[in-house]
Amino acid sequence: MEGRELHEAIMELARRRGFFWPSFEIYGGLRGFYTYGNLGTKLKRNIEKAWRRFFVDPHGFLELDTPVLNPLRVFKASGHLEHFKDVMVECLKCHRVFRADHLIEEEAGLEYVEAMGEEAIRRLLREKGIRCPECGGDLSEPQEFLTMFQTQIGPMGGEPGFARPEAAQGMFLNFKLGFHHARERLPFALAQIGKVMRNEISPRRGLLRLREFTIMELELFFDPQEGQCPWFKEVSDESVKLITEEMEAEGFKEPLEVTLGEAVESGYIKTEWQAYFMGVSKRFITYLGVPPERQRFRAHLPEERSHYSTQTYDHEVYLESWGWIEIAGHAYRTDYDLKAHQKASGVDLTVRRADGSRFLPHVVEPSFGLDRLVYVALEVAYRKRDGRTVLALPRWIAPIQAAVMPLVTRDGLPERAREIWSQLKDAGLTVEYEEKGSIGKRYARQDEIGTPIAVTVDYQTLEDDTVTLRDRDSWRQVRQEASRLPELLRSYINGEREFDELGRPL
RNA sequence: GCGGCCGUCGUCUAGCCUGGCUAAGACGUCAGCCUUCCAAGCUGAAGAUCCCGGGUUCGAAUCCCGGCGGCCGCACCA
Asked: How far apart are CA A473 and CA A383, in angstroms?
């Protein structure tokens, strides 16, 4: 299965088994919003946990949880208000809509028109006599599209408020206190998992482009005079596929394959700090089940980059359904944000070096779209076996870690199975008890939601209290004492043991 | 926003062209029986605003118009 068919199969499975589905369906639906069900919520949580394990915990970075709604002055200072809008024009004859700045660039041969501001765009449209490139018709007056959601804070319409389009500003606004809590030493990072909103013109492709979604962001603060990242050596031998800015500009399609060490040396990646997180990023995505050959990093061209970034690499993953899609952005934000907030707020955000000099830290930011990762994990795991569906999710992110079932529903087998189920739950595992239908059907149901292990209570269990463990991917079985399951299954789920080590083969 | 395609139980589909019984089937779900390891079988049950609104007609899931929603392409994705 490939292409759209695969996407449709996953969307159907997601709805049928309760991973996710479109929101507001009883009111006719609304594009760009999805609701997670039980399995989807668990899968999402497990991916969050994995992210912390790779990005936050190893260096003791600090996590924050900051407001979604922000007052106007935050996004005025950050530049979002200025840059998060597009000026559009419509052809009065054929009704096609264009971005005004792109039109001017093409028709008048200018560059970076967006940065010139709205007034300049209006003026240029008039001065250059620009017409519709498709049909030559007259164009409408330029109109603004603000892609941030706006509301009023306070019941009587007090202050304009905006839903954040990224979580990062929360980290910059709280930099001072965060820095203090990190014992005032660089480098350190503030991280956040949270909802953000973007009023996309055209949300599409299920979880891949939403109007409200969850982002996992980390802002690493470092001294720009300190070029060496102390952790970089851990990943410098990691090889990555790169499409550099130059390659992008010249239209190269085949990526360069280099180690991160070489990429920094050659100047493809501007700082070790950013390169470090690109290496972690690759390992993280591999951990979610995406093979390295289906990953690459693609540089943004200057006009494609966000206003705050001086270098951005998108981490892309290859999907059978949609081709290469972006799942993370690695941006070098320099001191852009701290400088902006320092200026707008009047609060000193500089920190002190050992020699007494003061400076604004620089920032590199890895930023993941969690919902996209949920979809990617599902699609990459999706298999067909003998006409049945198997979700070969890595066991550490599987929503249900084990299913306990009696071989038949009589002779005391269900009772014993329920006891084992209870023990495993008490041991902190996410376990389901299942007795509907035949044993084969139950295995198939569990395969379809990616449960890695099935525990079956049979007649021998009544004699010697051993059970069979059945592997989702190979269908092999081993036998083990019930009392040892909590310990063994926990280490299996964590990846500390392989299936063969769980018992005697059958 | 433009263009193309589409919208029927939880899911997948039949019916629509050529208007006419209580909208059919499979899967799933529920109850019961059966069942000693890979979606077995039997009996019964529940489950559909046929996307919404209007029009045509004696009669609309079916024809017409409008809207909403979805998918794809273009544009957009800071």
From this structure: 10
